[in-house]
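Below is a filled-in request sheet from our internal design queue. Each sheet records the structural input a requester submitted and the sequence that came back. We keep these sheets so that new team members can see what a complete request looks like end to end.

REQUESTER: design group, bay 2
PRIORITY: normal
MODE: inverse folding
CHAIN LENGTH: 141
BACKBONE (tokenized):
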């Protein structure tokens, strides 16, 4: 019993420490996530992956980011901070596939209302959403 409690306690403290450490490292304003920037998208950009990503975007993202990604979704109107415009040139959390992936998977930081989608969307499908988001600047301007 003591070993089980000790193990659970250690896991809990480790998780809390990592979470606080990551939150403390998150910068406000435009910034980069260097570790994520080097991540490569395992799903090749294609019409098929873009279409799959679009379906997921419509289901999970459009209510805040809007149908065309301009940050004008109905649910975003009541938020303290407007959702990001995914069609503009400024990517607050970095412009690479890896950085976009990490924001979707982990959320946009401790002060953001965008929470993690890690438990809602499998990683492969998050990569498909990234492929779709990449098309937004071409299709919505």
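RETURNED SEQUENCE:
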């Amino acid at each position: 019993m003591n070993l089980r409690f000790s193990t659970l306690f250690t896991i809990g403290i480790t998780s809390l420490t990592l979470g606080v450490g990551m939150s403390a490292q998150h910068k406000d304003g435009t910034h980069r996530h260097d570790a994520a920037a080097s991540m490569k998208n395992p799903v090749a950009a294609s019409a098929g992956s873009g279409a799959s990503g679009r379906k997921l975007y419509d289901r999970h993202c459009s209510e805040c980011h809007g149908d065309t990604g301009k940050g004008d979704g109905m649910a975003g109107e009541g938020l303290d901070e407007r959702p990001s415009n995914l069609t503009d040139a400024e990517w607050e959390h970095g412009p690479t596939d890896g950085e976009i992936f990490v924001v979707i998977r982990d959320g946009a930081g401790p002060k953001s209302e965008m929470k993690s989608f890690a438990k809602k969307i499998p990683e492969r499908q998050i990569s498909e959403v990234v492929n779709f988001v990449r098309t937004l600047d071409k299709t919505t301007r």
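SHEET NOTES:
- The radius of gyration is 17 Å.
- Residues 2-25 form the longest helix (24 residues).
FILED BY: M.R.
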